[in-house]
Specification:
The chain is mainly beta and about 140 residues long. Helices cover about 15% and strands about 40% of the residues. Strands 1, 2, 3, 4, 5, 6 and 7 form a 7-stranded antiparallel beta sheet that branches.
């Protein structure tokens, strides 16, 4: 029997929550970016490649979907794309790297959250990071 593979496609903007072990401590880290490639063959070797721009430099990570270190995959946006592999985004920066998106409601977004319970039970970590941390600049503008 094949394990269930989440329905993730190229063009989705996702937040992947991953367990990071530093010494004896474990923490959760969120990586948000656009899925540029999927390798979903229905087996345990299914992976997705997620790309983001961090301080002007492109960063890509390959996440094995059935790894115990991947705790949660949350779909933030769904873009309209006509290709299965979005390698052309590697050559683009700024506004030309944007993709037109579908409008989805919060209820649809909640249905698209893929939560891996096995990783959470094995690690003993119960809290997940779901919101970005506010910077001091945003607090200064509110006051």
């Amino acid at each position: 029997m094949k394990p269930s593979v989440p329905k993730i496609k190229a063009g989705y903007t996702v937040q992947v929550t991953q367990k990071i072990k530093e010494g004896e401590k474990e923490r959760l880290q969120v990586f948000e970016g656009i899925v540029i490639k999927t390798h979903l063959r229905g087996g345990l070797n299914s992976t997705i490649t997620v790309r983001k721009i961090s301080e002007g430099i492109g960063v890509e990570k390959v996440f094995p979907l059935h790894s115990p270190s991947v705790v949660e995959i949350k779909i933030v946006k769904i873009a309209k794309v006509s290709r299965a592999k979005l390698y052309y985004l590697r050559d683009r920066a700024g506004k030309s790297a944007r993709l037109p998106e579908f409008q989805i409601t919060q209820a649809q977004r909640d249905e698209l959250v893929i939560h891996f319970k096995k990783a959470e039970k094995a690690s003993g970590i119960t809290e997940t990071v779901s919101e970005p941390i506010e910077t001091t600049e945003s607090n200064d503008t509110q006051a």
